[in-house]
Design goal:
Elements (H helix, E strand, L loop, with lengths): L16 E2 L2 H6 L10 H17 L1 H10 L13 H9 L2 H6 L5 E5 L5 H13 L4 E6 L4 H13 L7 E5 L3 H8 L4 E8 L1 H11 L6 E6 L4 E4 L5 H13 L14 E5 L3 H14 L1 H4 L2 E2 L3 H16 L3 E4 L4 E3 L2 E4 L2 E4 L16 E7 L1
Parallel strand pairs: 1-4, 2-3, 2-5, 3-4, 5-6, 7-8, 8-14, 13-14
Antiparallel strand pairs: 9-12, 10-13, 11-12
């Protein structure tokens, strides 16, 4: 069985899906005794093996996320990653618990990070509500399908789509929920900690995700967000717009996409630090950047800033470059060289 549906990352069935968190909690049976520890452990090993066998589906998801086949190593051998993350299986067994854990991993944790979070709770005997990120729901779908195929019951893990802060606030008020395991931007983690105030949780695991991909949600201030993205992408303390080996992209909510683009263009013109071109570190960088400009234009992206080399005295410099109207399948959005090129992608 392909947990991705014949290599297509779009799920083919709706098993275990809930439109609201209350329904997802009702689909579980937190009072039922869990299988013996060794049985849970064996099922997790089997689930990890299923993920490894579904390389075609993994590659399809990786392509959408801007990753190439060579980057899939972090998503294989996930049992080893789980052992390291949980402090070892014996430690988890000693901490066996009952009830429900809400797992809401940031999309940037991808398959491996999401698997580790869910496995850490399942091996302790908890039921799990896995929250899908609406931009990449196929990650959560694949995780649940491989766990069910490996022997975990339908009442062990349920899916909920798009659990934002307000939904998690409701879930944390439910007495069945004893654990919150989530990640995201620093702002999101701070807000989640506030949500936990006054709640008697058995445990929480909140982690800040650092990435060269930025996220701009509809409730954020447009001007402030544009300035922050511009400085993070092209400020003096960045390496030409990207962290080494990562793609400089910004996911911008559809609702504010147009005003955000306008605000970003204004920032590129008004912030003195960004008006100067990026010093050339090596000659090969100029060739790669020129290729990125050409590639973006050939694929139909719209160039809104930069795009030409400049000479400053005897020094060749590269201007900060921004593309909008970029689709996730485009090669322009999936480049991994540290170049001063930022791509803006819409998300609903």
């Amino acid at each position: 069985m392909s947990v991705f549906g014949n290599g297509d990352p779009t799920p083919q069935d709706g098993g275990g899906e809930a439109c609201d968190l209350a329904s997802a909690l009702d689909a579980l049976d937190p009072g039922a005794p869990p299988p013996p520890f060794e049985e849970r452990l064996e099922r997790l090993r089997a689930a990890a093996g299923i993920l490894e066998k579904n390389r075609a589906g993994l590659e399809a998801i990786a392509a959408r996320l801007g990753l190439g086949p060579a980057d899939l190593g972090a998503h294989l051998g996930v049992v080893d990653a789980f052992e390291g993350a949980s402090g070892g299986f014996e430690y988890a067994f000693a901490r066996e618990e009952r009830g429900v854990a809400i797992c809401a991993p940031d999309w940037r944790e991808l398959l491996c990070g999401g698997f580790v979070r869910v496995a850490t709770e399942l091996v302790r005997g908890l039921r799990v509500v896995l929250c899908c990120d609406e931009r990449f729901p196929e990650i959560a779908w694949a995780l649940r399908r491989c766990l069910v195929e490996a022997g975990f019951s339908e009442s062990t893990i349920a899916l909920h789509h798009g659990a934002r802060q307000e939904v998690l606030r409701t879930g944390l008020m439910d007495e069945r929920v004893g654990v919150l395991s989530a990640s995201g931007t620093a702002e999101r983690v701070i807000e989640l900690r506030r949500l936990c105030i006054g709640r008697v949780l058995a445990r929480e695991s909140l982690r800040t995700i650092r990435s060269a991909a930025f996220e701009v949600t509809s409730h954020m201030d447009v001007e402030a967000s544009a300035r922050s993205v511009a400085l993070q992408a092209f400020g003096a303390n960045t390496m030409g717009g990207q962290l080494p080996g990562q793609v400089a992209r910004a996911f911008v909510a559809e609702k504010i996409y147009s005003p955000f683009v306008e605000a970003l263009i204004g920032c590129m013109d008004s912030i003195e630090e960004l008006r100067d071109t990026v010093p050339l570190i090596d000659r090969e960088a100029a060739r790669r950047t020129q290729k990125a400009w050409t590639q973006g234009l050939d694929e139909g992206a719209t160039l809104i800033s930069g795009g030409e080399e400049e000479m400053k005295g005897d020094e060749l410099r590269l201007p900060p470059t921004v593309f909008c109207n970029v689709e996730s399948h485009m090669c322009a959005a999936r480049r991994q060289e540290p170049l001063p090129v930022l791509c803006l992608l819409r998300w609903a």
